Amino acid sequence: MGYDAILHRPRWTMRLKIGNLIAKFTKDGPIFRMTTQLDPINQRILAELVANARIPISELAARVGLSKTPVTQRIKQMEEMGLITGYRAILSPLKLGLTHVTYVEVRMTDTRQIALDRFNDGVRRIHEVEECYMIAGGFDYLLKVRSRDMAHFRQIMAEQISALPFIQGTSSYVSMEAVVEQNWMAP
Question: Can you tell me the distance from the alpha carbon of 81 to that of 21, in angstroms, rounded to the nearest whole number?
C-alpha cells in the first residue's frame, strides 16, 4: 500500500494519502475521508447485508445481478477497506424484557485524559449501557440505558452509573416511544 504526503506551509495543511483514505491535518486537527466512492452495486450489496447479514451469497448475487465470485470478492474488498467491520446478531430488547429506555447526561468533575479513560473503562463494563457518546456541549457524555422498568433503572443508576469515577452530576430522560430505531443503510 503506497502513500503520499503534501505539505502546504502557507496554509499549515498536510495531506496524507494511504490507500483509499485521505487524512488532512490542519491546525484545528485531522480530517479523514475515503477517496473511493461506492459504486451502485457495492451500495446494493451493503443494503442487502445490512438488512440480512446471513443472506446466502447465491441469493445476494442474484439480487445484485452478479455471479457469486465477484460478489464474494467485493465483500472481501469492503472488509479489507474497513468499510464492513463485522457481522452480529441483533437481539430484540423487547423479547428480553428490556422495555425501559433512559438517556442519561453525565457531567464530569475532571476532563483530563486519564479521567476520561477511567470513566470509559468503567462505563464499558455496565451491560445495561447500550450506547455511550462523548459530547461537546453542556455536558460530557450521553448514555443510552436499557432496563426492565424504572425500579431496575434506579438500581443501575445507584449501584453502577453513580459509582463511575469523576462524575459531577447526571440528568435522566425517559423515552416514551421509539419513533425511529434503525441500522445505518448504504446510500
Answer: 9
105-148 pLDDT tens trace: 999 999 999 999 999 999 999 999 999 999 999 999 999 999 99
* Structural domains present in the chain: 3-34 (no CATH), 40-80 (1.10.10.10), 100-174 (3.30.70.920)
Cell of 118: 477511567
pLDDT tens for residues 57-94? 999 999 999 999 999 999 999 999 888 999 988 888 88
The count of C-alpha atoms lying within 13 angstroms of the C-alpha of 73, restricted to the half-sphere facing its C-beta, is 5
- In which order are the strands placed within the sheet that holds 3-8? 3-8, 13-18, 21-26, 29-34
Identity of the amino acid at 113: Q
**What number of other Cβ atoms are within 10 A of residue 119's Cβ?**
22
Other beta carbons within 10 angstroms of residue 105's beta carbon come to 17
